[in-house]
């Protein structure tokens, strides 16, 4: 069974993370990219989280993106950078090694 792995703050993650092929990594962050190993891992995208309100409409906060999603595609290793903070002011970049296993 594949997993949806949510990481609130990448800087509190271990420097290397073991995951399985098919897993999705969802970071609370404003940006990110794959440095190396783009065959093992791909950036799905940078998103703005939203909810359905009591009026049945989609509600989203005003501001910068707040979720970054990576998909584990195949066995191997990849390094990623996850960007936290306001992309228009002070940001923090965290580099992680992702180890993808079957």
Keywords:
four-stranded mixed β-sheet, 102 residues, mainly beta, Immunoglobulin-like
Number of helices: 0
How widely separated are the two ends? Answer: 11 Å
The major sheet is characterized as: 4 strands, mixed
Shape, principal axes of CA atoms:
globular
Output the helix-strand order: EEEEEEEEEE
- Proportion in β-strands: over 45%
CATH topology: Immunoglobulin-like
CATH top-level class: Mainly Beta
> What class, by secondary structure content?
mainly beta
Q: Which bin fits the share of residues in helices?
A: under 10%
Describe the structure in your own words.
This protein has one domain: Immunoglobulin-like. It is built from no helices and ten strands. The relative contact order is 0.32. The mean pLDDT is 94.
Summarize the structure.
Helices cover 0% and strands 56% of the residues. With 102 residues, the chain is mainly beta.
């Amino acid at each position: 069974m594949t997993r949806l792995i949510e990481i609130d703050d990448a800087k509190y993650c271990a420097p290397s993370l073991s995951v399985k092929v098919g897993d999705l990594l969802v970071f609370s962050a404003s940006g990110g990219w794959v440095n190396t190993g783009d065959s093992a891992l791909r950036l799905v995208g940078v998103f703005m989280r939203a909810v359905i309100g009591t009026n049945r409409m989609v509600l989203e906060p005003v501001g910068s993106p707040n979720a970054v999603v990576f998909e584990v595609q195949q066995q191997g290793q990849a390094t990623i950078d996850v960007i936290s903070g306001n992309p228009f002011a002070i940001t923090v970049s965290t580099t992680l090694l992702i180890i993808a296993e079957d």
